[in-house]
Write a structure and sequence with these properties.
globular; 185 residues
């Protein structure tokens, strides 16, 4: 079975370590864990491929990062899913979530976009929100800080200390969905 795991984020070094790019950090972790090499795809995504499991029952996994900004990521991701003929039910999107406390992980089957522009773009391009999600808590901004500014800031020192474990656990959550199905995971 073929799975597409998309990490939402923005391109470029200035966004690399921001809260909004935590989805991409998860797919980076998955690629690293499986010694998968990144390559450029004509869909305007970077991809890495690996097998999860052994033998004939091993799942094929493509992890991807769009080269476009998050609010325009739907087109490249849809083109990639079409190229590989991945069913929407086998698309997992890893993304930041303001309404979940930092370091909490939640999986979700389909649903709304909760104001997340990356999810809006994906849903618009696919014509459906029936894809799987691994929601990564980044918490709410402190005080009166604007949410749009907060998500584009780097993680705090304390958060950076917790980040490696959060990324490993998030990668484990993605693997559990692929291996055991969304309801079991």
């Amino acid at each position: 079975m073929l799975w597409l795991v998309v990490g939402l984020g923005n391109p470029g070094p200035e966004y690399e370590a921001t809260r909004h790019n935590i989805g991409q950090l998860v797919v980076d972790q998955l690629a690293k864990s499986h010694s998968a090499k990144w390559s450029s795809h004509k869909s305007r995504c970077d991809i890495a491929e690996f097998k999860l499991g052994v033998g004939v029952d091993a799942a094929s996994v493509i992890v991807a990062k769009s080269k476009s900004y998050m609010n325009e990521s739907g087109g490249p991701v849809k083109a990639l899913a079409n190229f590989y003929k991945v069913e929407l039910a086998n698309v997992i999107v890893s993304h930041d979530e303001l309404d979940i406390p930092f370091a909490a992980i939640r999986s979700k089957i389909a649903g709304g976009d909760n104001g997340h522009n990356g999810l809006k773009s994906l849903t618009s391009s696919f014509g459906s929100a029936e894809y799987l999600r691994v929601r990564l808590g980044i918490g709410r901004p402190p005080g009166r800080q604007d949410a749009a500014d907060f998500v584009l800031k780097n993680f705090s020192g304390d958060e950076r200390k917790e980040l490696p474990l959060l990324l490993e656990l998030s990668a484990d959550a993605v693997e559990a969905i692929v291996r055991d199905g969304a309801l079991t995971a």
